[in-house]
Amino acid sequence: MFNNKVDFNMKRVDKFIVNFLMVTLNIFAIMGMLAVFTVPLLMALPEYLKNLAHISIKHTSFLEINLILILSIIVELKNIVGRIKKDKVFLYENADGFVKIGIYVFLFGVVRQINYIVNGHYGTLFRFDNDGNLDIDVFIFIIVACVSFVISEVLRKAVKIKNENDLTI
């Protein structure tokens, strides 16, 4: 009897987490879409306002690329969480989704580094902030992308094992 109660509570917690993720990702997706469509409107501002806000075509171009990459990550996460919500965890589509997320995160890091170089913030991979700490932004993106690729491969192996188990009686 105790195991059934614990199992029931875990299912409720799991359902809450998945629903919370879906709501959060939907909010982020709406915010991302609004941002993607409104950023180009910044270039339609009068010249004196663009100068006042330091808005240039370079800044808005990189901002738009970053927003599209972030929105792509959110959409892939929504797809994965949606399949998990339907109890379809061990699918190759989920593994492919993690590969896409890894690619998008890696591209985001590359675009961010190029943005820093083009817009004159700094042009080195290793730099120190005002407190003397090493700032390694681009490497964080590479690490997150690698973690996503590893999750994808683990999920592929799990799908393969599940498919083999489904074939056995």
Automatic annotation (TrEMBL):
InterPro entries: DUF2975. Keywords: Membrane, Transmembrane, Transmembrane helix. The chain crosses the membrane at residues 20-45, 57-77, 98-118, 138-155. Pfam families: DUF2975 (PF11188). The keyword Membrane applies. It comes from the Bacteria. This is DUF2975 domain-containing protein. It comes from Clostridium ragsdalei P11.
